[in-house]
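User: I'm curious whether this sequence folds into something compact or stays loose and floppy. Could you predict its structure so I can see for myself?
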Amino acid sequence: MDETEETSTTEWTRVPDPKCAGRLFSQELLHRGKDSGSLSLSLDLRHSRGEQDRAIASLYRRDGLQWSSPLNCALKGGVAVTRIFEGESDHLIPSVSEELLENNMFAMAGRMIGHSFLHNGPSFPGLSPAIVHVLFGGSLETAPVTIRDCPDLDIREIVEKLEGDAEFKEDDSIHQLCLSWDFPAPSNSNRKWLAKRLLLHAVIEQTRRQINHFRRGLEDTGIWTLLSHRRDVIPVLFPRESEAQVTPQMILDCITWPSSITVIFDEYEDKYLGSDEFCTIDIKRVSSFLKMFIENG
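Assistant: Here's the prediction. I'll summarize afterward.
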C-alpha cells in the first residue's frame, strides 16, 4: 500500500467532524466494492404493498452480500415499509413481535440503515437513547430508560402506579403483570424497585434479541468498524427527530453546485440566429433560480 492510499484509508479516524468521518469511511468502503457484482432490486407499483414489502425484504434478508457493491434499483411504483419499531418520537424501540424476529426483520432493518448510510442516504432518527446505549455495548443497569420508552400504555400505567403512593389490590393488573414476568408480588417495600425493574424489562430485556439482530445487520454492511472507532458518528446515524428535520439550508448544503459554464441545447435552435447557432443558458443563472426555489418554495 503506497503512502497516498494509506493516508486515505486512515483519514476518517483523524478528521474532527463526525459527519465528514462517516463520509470518508463510506467512500473508502464503496471504493473497495466498486468492482464487485451489483446488487439488484425491482419493485412494481401494480403489486400490492405487501408484495412490495416482500421484494425489499428478500434483498435485505440475504446473508453474505457485499453491501458496498453498486446497487441497481428498478422502481415501477411506490414502496411501503413494515413498521418494526414502535413508540413515540425519540423513544422508538424494537417491536416485541415474535413473528418479526423469526422472519429476520431486525437484521434486515440494520442492513437497510447501514446500506443507506454508505450511500449517503437518510439516517434513522428517533431511536430511544436506551436502545442506542445497549446496541453499542452499554450495560442494562446504566441504560437511560424512561417511561416514554415504553410504547405499551397499560404497562406505563402500572409503572406509574408503583412509583406513586396509591394502594393496589391483589387481583389487579399489577399482580398479573408481575406474575407473568416472574417478578415478586408488589408491596410497599419493593414497589419503587419493582417499577424500575418492570420498565427495564419492558423496554430492554424483552427486546434484547431484536437489538442483537439489528446489530448483526449493521455489522453486515461494514460500518460497525466506523461506529466502534468513532462514537461521535453514532448520533449522525441515529439522530433525534428534531435534528433530522429537513430544512432548505440542509438541502443546499448537500448540493454540489457547478462552476460557471455554458451548456448548449441543440434541440432549442434559435431561428433568429440561423440554423447553425444555438440557444445558450448560463448555469450560474439557473443555479440561482434553483437556490431561490429551495429557500422560498
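Summary: Residues 1-8, 260-280 have pLDDT under 50 and may be disordered. The radius of gyration is 26 Å.
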